[in-house]
Amino acid sequence: MENQQKQLRFSFPKMFVYLILSIGAFLSIFPLYWMFVMATNHNSAINNVPPAFLPGDELVTNFTNVVNTIEFFGAIWNSFIVATVTTIGVLFLCSLAGYAFAKFNFKGKNFLFVAILVTMMIPPQLGLIPQYIIITKLDWLNDLKAIIFPGLIDAFGIFWMRQYITSNVPDELVDAAKIDGCNNFRIYWNIAVPVIIPAFATLAIIKFMYIWNDFLWPLVVLREESSFTIQVALRGLIDNYVRDNGMIMSGTFWATVPLIIIFLLLNRLFIASLTEGAVKS
């Protein structure tokens, strides 16, 4: 009898936690499901009261309308190039800077690090005009380089890498490598990089999603439809007179699929980086 009471005491909190997690999971997944439902239904079914809550049979038709209205695959390819190149650059440059801040002692180190953190509090819209002037002088308007190069360094990425390297790359290991004759870059490449792979995955997901979803800056610097990223191209689905919600949601849904794939590929490393150090042996 006492054992049963103890089991009930321990099971009730677990059931409550699972209930909260289930509700949270439902609230997180429902917008994606609803977007898919709208992408598979005709505009009339979406505008009904109550609207359709089950997938329809207009998935192919709506996506065909998307492809006929905008250069969907070209925009997806442009976004993939921009997001991939920028993410790789951020991972390399931010990890180098983070390693320097974590393991090197130099004059002005703390001041520079605080200055980098301060830039995180400045709204990116304030830098829009200066960046546009620089891009214009470089003659990069309507070129993907105008999106790639400004995003190659990231204040949060430097902060994230510095904190992770400080916690997970022991100073003793670095000192031992120096005694063995390794230079600084070799220590970074052969010792630090294998340790911070989970941090790479986390930063890659965050940066890839940010670049993929960016709308304002690509809208400013890209003029021709052939150079549009997917977020700018999706704007062409909105007509001033006729609003086809099924077509709009179809384009939005398929533009979201690459992000889901990236997250599923890197989610284990993402979770590992967030839980690093939470359980100590």
Automatic annotation (TrEMBL):
InterPro entries the UniProt entry points to: MetI-like, MetI-like_sf
Upper classification of the organism: Bacteria, Bacillati, Bacillota, Bacilli, Bacillales
Keywords attached to this entry: Cell membrane, Membrane, Transmembrane, Transmembrane helix, Transport
Transmembrane segments: 16-36, 75-99, 111-135, 147-166, 187-212, 247-266
Membrane topology: Multi-pass membrane protein
Highest rank taxon of the organism: Bacteria
Naturally occurring in which organism (per UniProt): Saliterribacillus persicus
Subcellular location: Cell membrane
Coiled-coil ranges per UniProt: none
Main location: membrane
Family the UniProt entry places it in: Belongs to the binding-protein-dependent transport system permease family.
GO BP terms in the entry: transmembrane transport
Name of the featured protein: Carbohydrate ABC transporter membrane protein 2 (CUT1 family)
CDD domains associated with the record: TM_PBP2
Domain ABC transmembrane type-1: 76-266
PROSITE patterns hit by this protein: ABC_TM1 (PS50928)
One cellular component term from this protein's GO annotations in UniProt: plasma membrane
